[in-house]
Write a structure and sequence with these properties.
The complex is a heterodimer of chains A (539) and B (396). By secondary structure, chain A is mostly helical. Chain A has 25 helices and no strands. The termini of chain B are far apart. The radius of gyration of chain B is 21 Å and the shape is globular. The chains are: A mainly alpha (539), B alpha/beta (396).
Amino acid sequence: METRQLRLGGWGQLLALTLVGLVFVPLLPGLYWALGPSFKIVVWQTLLSDPQWSQAVSATLVSALLGTLLAGLITAGLATRLYPSPTWQRLQQRLPVLLSVPHVAFAVGLFFLIAPSGWLARAAGLFLSWTSPPDWVTVQDPYGLSLALALALKESWFLLWVLAALLGEQAVTRQLAVARSLGYSPAQTWRQVLWPQLLPRLRWPLAAALAYSLSVVDMALILGPGTPPTLAVLTWHWLSDPDTSVQAQGGAAALALLLLFGVISALACGVWWLLRRWRAYPSGQRRADVQHPWPWQTPLLAISYAVLAVLVLWSVADSWFFPALWPDGLSWDAWRSAKLAPFWTTLWLALVVSLLSLPVVLIWLEWGPQRWNAVLYLPLIVPTLPLVAAQYAALLRLQLDATALALVWSHLLWVLPYMLLTLVGTYRAFDARLMTSARALGCSPLQACLRVKWPLLLRPMLAAWAVGFAVSVAQYLPTLFAGAGRFDTVTTEAVALSAGGSRQVLAVQALLQVALPLAAFVLATTLASAWGRNRKGVR
Amino acid sequence: MTLAKLATTLSTLALGLGWCAPVLAADWSQTEAQAKGQTVYFNAWGGGEAINSYIDWAAKEVQSRYGVTVKHVKINDAAEVVKRIQTEVAAGRNNHGSVDLMWVNGENFRSLKQAGLLYGPWAESLPNWGLVDLNKPVRSDFSVPTEGYETPWGTAQLTFISDKAVTPTPPRSATEWLRFAKANPGRVTYPKPPDFHGTTFVKQLLLELAPNPALLQQAVTPQAFASATPALWAYLDELHSLAWRAGKSFPASAAAMHRMLADGELKLSLTFNPNEAANLISSRQLPPTAYSFGFTRGTIGNVHFLAIPSNARAKAGAQVFANFLLSPEAQAHKADTRIWGDGSVLDLGKLSAGVQALMRNKAPGALAESVPTLAEPHASWVEALETEWLKRYGAR
């Protein structure tokens, strides 16, 4: 029995390592091929003397730092004020829907909302009787402020979602009750008791938000500055330039993004360490809370729903020019003539990728060496551009670029870690006594896993599948590079259309981009509750 | 296009098609036989709805007629395709590259041709080459001889768009443009070079402002650049101070400018297609009061081409598709403003009366006046101008 278990464990580990290795290992030579030419002094000299460099960096820093910081503050503010309360419960229930709105669709909607000719300006123009849009610098502002706003809103949902999961695990309610009985206000309790525990556990999600904000290209193309664009957009332009010396400069810029990420993370850790030393011993003074806190969740939700509403309205609008608040008429033309090829491509791609990833993640969680999880999370906390460049270089050498296989493989690098992240908590928390009972009743380890553990974990597995599906739908750079532009997805289509062309058509593609992950989440929830209806223990 | 109209067009075209009895019939039928069953990856700019649906139409036609499958790879910038071909060849992919046919002109053609990355010559042995109007600059691409390495696809001319309801009298020269900007601060701009339209606008200004425009037809030299451009930079310095967002930021594309024109955020927009405004009006992207105009002394015009990379997999299929795109039927369909409205490269005199009438048909909003065509500066000027522009204005 013991040897059989060992054998299974050994084979399982080998299988887990092979499967994950297939996704990760080709990156190493890829990184060498892609970034090797950038390790020359002269490349860095041209990069640093590029006239666009300093402003591109400042726009990147402003949008990434402000975006991440604001997202953190929104999350912290909402949790402090609302947890625990029915409002928090309601907010938590809405999070999956908000999370499933892809970044690109959100950016497009926000553009329709806040552009000088957008919905808000039209509403204002109604009272101020404007005939032409105001000469305001809202979207594509030189400092990347509108990009920061979009990132902050989008990332705050992600952070709230992670925080909700953390709050579920910790015995927070008990601590709150104890602190309150000692006379501390809820705000003080959060500041002095809860955040010091929660923040260290939020550091990886925060790092992921930062890495994402630093290297985001799709949203920056829609909302970010253009003269010059953010560093990530510049890097992408340079990496796809015909001139090899410009490509090397792009490689160097990708490394610079990595460097920026490292420096900011180190500084953040330093600040955290200082704060801990400085505020190690709170005074013990009791302070009263503000009696009627302003409901911050309302504007947050209002913006999100307005973004979706304006997308829907544009998709069915007939002609609709400034300063009209409503379209001249409604028409289904944009939907009727919508190009559905990108939709189907996105659908099969996301299905294949997420359905491939799920067994890989399960095998990894069951038999893989768990201490290496951190390596698997790397794609989430490292800027995307160097990784995409490495993938492309590897695919080119293998003569696999522009194939469906390449596309699936390139998406796995981001889908796998996200699914692992979603599943790992509940997987670890699985009651080991159930497995012991199964073994005692005569099941082999494999049988126990297949017949007891995995069926019991079906609900979180479905949730992880939906997350993986959504992550695949949202991929922009991997789709462009690995697919060599041959595969249009709703995401690449929406970004391409955002540069110009019919707003009605753009709105349709953006809504299709929203529909796919939303459908996956609905499907996952429905299946899970159908499965759990007659099974009491299935959570 | 109504069905009845399509039917009459097709019947006139059927007569026209019989005309092109090719000299190289044997060779060509061999090419057609090879092409059958091939998949052609056609890399072409994918940012225009009208263009995309035209390519879809053409793809369906060659599929049913010649058994050639055409896949439109939508790209943002032909320079990316040039890069991909270079990388592929450098990595040893010499005969099964990812690009079979590409839409190209100017600088990108020059760099591909110089690097020996083009297949050919093939263009002038296409059966439909005989119909091409050789009076148009179809054998020289931004002053670089094409030598059969690319086949002309359509013509274009820099055209401006405005809205009659707001701007009844548009500026008709560089000087008037500046005066217009003074009268309408914040409402004038152009796409940021190296966007193709932005660069063309800068070249248009240069043609008018350079002391000796003849210099621009030669390859650029540091001396020529130093003598031709100071007036341009002085002009742009002044224009930018009056432009949208004070010239500190520029729209990403002409398509973005059309949107801003439609909303009244801008008063002037530009395009390289004299029929685009008509097209945009019919698809409700521009108000019906929009109209096209040109400069009195002319605007830059050129021809855009199709080329086959040296490492293309489906060379025969690419030629069959290119030949179809050059046919009177495809060219007339393309010239129709309700479809795309791109100018034909064929000699009207060699076509049937029905096709001629179809090509002369103008929709409201299209360029109604006759604007002289100015030749493109030599391709090498593009990079020099773009680099200097980015240096001066690329950062605030």
